Input
Amino acid sequence: MSAHQRVTYVQQRFLAACLALATTAALSGCGLLPGEEEGRETITVWLMKGSASSGFLEKFTEEFEREHTDLALDVQIQDWSGIGPKVSAALEAPDADAPDVIEVGNTQVAQYVDGGGLLDLTLESMRDFGMDDWLPGLADPGSYRGAQYGIPWYAANRVVIYDKQLFEEAGIKNPPTTQADWLRDTARLNTGSNQGIYLAGQDWYTLAGFVWEEGGELAEEKGGRWKGALDSDAALRGMDFYARLQALGQGPKAADEEDPPQAGVFAKGGVAQIISVPGTATLIEEQNPALKGRLGFFPIPGKSKNKPGAVFTGGSDLVIPQRTDQQRGAVKVVAALAGREWQTELARTMNYVPNKTTLAEVVADEEGVAAMAKGAAHGRATPGSKRWAAVEADNPIKRYMTDVLIGGDPATEARKASRRITELLDNSRS
Output
């Protein structure tokens, strides 16, 4: 998951949990529990701030150590800011103080695999972890050149947050389930002072889903080289749908969903829909309590009535450094965290989507999370190039979107953006 999505989801939803963690961070440095106990081997686990509550971690540690009397856990909480270089350094560390299990963003696995830094967990995934049921948006980026290095932990993705009262006033009894119905209903909602949808012009994660839904790609690997693919017919159809939807509201064409923050725009009233993670609804209600009870959620519609649209899936995978001296214990920790019992506990505690499609029922009672889970079953991740972070930093996709929305020729602008993506992904460049 990118840093941007974590700001809009994890931090807003779990700020209280983060503060609680901060109060306990004095134990064992940043760890939650003491280190090695007599007669036990210590497994050091790096987890990211906000990913799990202190209560969850305390319960997991207690029960794991009770079941594994030869192992002790030292769970250390890390900040997302600056984590990349810190993980890279840890993967190269030869000493026993390096972590044995690390939580990483699902789209970051490829960059850590390069150079042999991660343990190949393909056998364990096939034999013990039930990989056939994993969410594709977590599992696929955890795989590199046919081997599985990242084990899916939790997921989050965008849904449509809507104002039930505005839908009712427009005579719309049920949320749309196809793209065609979505455009029709949004046009009906976009009347008078009301916006049918507030969709910023540079919400490229949402565009990615539309491109994938059409069968297109942001970039493709051919012959070991990555090339931009926004100029394919399928990708252009995705951009066309985005433009048609974006026009049914007053979203800025040259800014993303955080400029201004779309939660604040929705909270002012008169907005029928936004595309965001469910936790955004909490921010909206905090800014406008009058909207409490009026907000609903539905999966982003796809082309077919029986299948939600493709979405970008963010979240985390668990990895084990190749150089760990506690491989056996590390695998047991990953197996527990990724297994049904603790996946259920984590999903219900944190309102995440669990790592398997077969576990969707454990969040069925939470409307927003249930909508996420339906979309996550058809989720995708960004291209698996180890250089994809360079694309997000420069982000020609955002510029492309704005250029099309202000009247540029889509095919011409797509070719320009694709060339720039190719340049940024070129392995021959430093």
